[in-house]
Amino acid sequence: IGSMAVTLAPTIIPPLFELLKSWVDRKPSTPVKIKIKVGRKIAQIEYDPTKTSAEELETLVKTLGKTVKK
Q: What pTM, to 2 d.p., does this model score?
């Protein structure tokens, strides 16, 4: 049984991981809310971490800060 499992593993594992990945991708993500101080006010940003990178979020926060300073 052990040798059969080792022989079949390369054939079975990749499709199994693809199945698991597609299942996880279907699960709706939980939005993340952050509050930042912009001038005298507090701004709340809600974003999806699976669709928004840390760099994009940083750019958004910096842009928001610049618009208030003008």
A: 0.50
